[in-house]
Amino acid sequence: MATQDTVSLFAMLLALASLTGCATNPDVGSLTGDQRARVASMEVVRGPTTRPHTVLAAVKGLSCHRNAYQRQQLTEAEAIEGVKLRAASLDADAVVNVVCQINSGADWINNCWSSIVCVGDAVQYKD
């Protein structure tokens, strides 16, 4: 039989999981007109850039298969789009040092059966 402490711990873990579950890409509706224009012209660089720049923040994008019973196409393009949306919300000019990873097993952090995660540095050019 479960003790009160075990039940309390389980309830706390369940509440924490519901708060951290489902990571998604930002909603384009939350962007300003200028930020949407930035997404459309955003440069994505797989390696470093030689242009003088300031790093604003690390940004992440996701392509996620959430339903184990439906076939869903995971695409790197969707994950890159998430990177661009997050960078645009910071008013970045580009995203550099972009790296993507395919997670074929369950991705519990993002609440996905499988996923593609891309991460890069949102930058503003100095020139």
TrEMBL record:
Pfam families: RcsF (PF16358)
Highest rank taxon of the organism: Bacteria
Region forming the signal peptide: 1-23
Keyword Signal among record annotations: yes
Keyword presence, Signal: yes
This protein's UniProt keywords: Signal
The protein, known as: Lipoprotein
Taxonomic lineage of the native organism: Bacteria, Pseudomonadati, Pseudomonadota, Betaproteobacteria, Rhodocyclales
